[in-house]
Design goal:
By secondary structure, this protein is an alpha+beta fold. It has helices at residues 2-39, 109-122; strands at 42-46, 49-53, 59-66, 84-93, 96-105, 126-133, 139-147, 150-158, 165-173. It has a 9-stranded antiparallel β-sheet with strand order 1-2-3-4-5-9-8-7-6. A hairpin with a 2-residue loop joins β1 and β2 (49-53). The longest helix is centred in the first third of the chain and has 38 residues, at 2-39. Mean pLDDT is 79; it is low at 1-24.
């Protein structure tokens, strides 16, 4: 009798899970339809990617990665080894890819700024702009670098009482 009751509970739970996942899919489709109606942009979510197509046929795809660099992130771009990737985003508009990555590290902002400046130069990137405010109470620095039609923007920040430095790397086509 206990076995039949336990089996019944398991079946009820399985049915509930399937019902909830069906509701989630219905809610997702309803959200897509509402966005499409409000914006006139076609939306498609599939396998962790959101695709939109505007009325001119321009297609944009976005995908996110948690705890890792997004798929396709250039392996030859300097990757800060003493940090942990928090999140990454890959975007593609009409085939042109761009990336945003958030990295956290216990290293001082000044050390991170120096490392990126040195590594970018040694990897053949031209430093276009640079601002070093890492010696202030609320450390902030930024670097803009260009190489082979690509533009990189690195922002480094750390609040006075924060135990970690935040690094945001943006990489995409250089639109001059």
């Amino acid at each position: 009798m206990r076995r039949i009751t336990a089996l019944g509970l398991v079946l009820v739970m399985v049915v509930a899970v399937f019902a909830l996942s069906g509701c989630q899919q219905m809610a997702q489709k309803a959200t897509e339809a509402a966005v499409e109606k409000a914006t006139g942009v076609k939306v498609d979510t599939n396998a962790g990617t959101i695709s939109t197509t505007d009325e001119d046929g321009n297609t944009t795809e976005l995908s996110a990665a948690e705890g890792t660099y997004p798929d396709g992130f250039p392996s030859d771009f300097p990757q800060y080894a003493n940090g942990k990737v928090d999140s990454g985003l890959k975007g593609s508009t009409n085939g042109e890819e761009s990336f945003t990555v958030i990295i956290m590290t216990a290293d001082a902002a000044a050390d991170v700024f120096k490392w990126y400046t040195d590594e970018l130069k040694s990897a053949g990137w031209k430093i276009d702009q640079s601002m070093d405010g890492t010696n202030s109470e609320a450390a902030f620095a930024s670097i803009v670098a260009i190489k082979d039609g690509q533009k990189a923007g690195i922002t480094i920040s750390r609040a006075q009482d924060d135990p970690e430095t935040s690094i945001m790397v943006g990489l995409g086509p250089d639109k001059k």
